[in-house]
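Its record is set out here:
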Amino acid sequence: MKIRCGQFAQVTVAIIAGATIWGCARSDLPPGGPPDTTPPEVISSQPLAGALLVEPSAAIEIRFSEEMDRRSVEKAFSVTPDIEFRNLRWHGTALEARPATGFSDVTTYIVRVTESATDFHGVAMGVPFEFAFSTGEAIDDAWIGGRVILTGEGVSGVTVWACRDIPQPDSSGAYSRCEYEALTSDGGAFLIAHVKPSEEPYSMLAFIDTDLDGLYVPGEETGGIFESGALVSASGDSVGDLDLPLELPLTDEEHPHDATGE
């Protein structure tokens, strides 16, 4: 095939241009470098921490410092007292949670994201994030604290609930989350903040959530229910010396004793 002079020039230019583009493309490739090890963090929230008279129709928004693994964040996200959300939506690096029927009047809410939330590269948050706001004119400032023990030793990572009523199991025998929740830290210590005063003692329930389903199943999971655990009678009141001993679940060889001890 013969190529005229003009055609040769065009072909030559095209080859040079292609080589130049290819060379530029290679020079722009990422050079690699060290992996991302910087823990993500929360950089803003709505409502603001300590906000009062928040509208019942408001939504919660938590904005992170970088792109997050969304499923891990949604699992690590919780609100106390427990509330049903219409949906969880993402806007870039921000998680939005809108209540299905709105927030209750004159109620303090505690929003948490535990340290198990990870960024897009799998790096976990270094510390949990927590803040409180109220739909009333003040934030409840009473608290309940103590220690969870098993065979005389403190146990970390235990779920602790403070229940305004004595907890009752559902038809399957499982107990659902109460109004207030915390996790024990090293040594088994726990602190439930922003508790609303009550005329009756809070019942306490502590258990090791083996299957991470948010439910306590006696006989299958290590735990215990304490019907008269903590009386918080006034704003600013505190109960800080509770010891909650867990009971190991029964094995196949063990059977519960009746009141006669037989």
Notes: Confidence is low (pLDDT under 50) at residues 11-29, 251-262. The CA atoms of residues 148 and 252 lie 26 Å apart. The longest strand covers residues 142-150. The chain is about 10% helix and 35% strand.
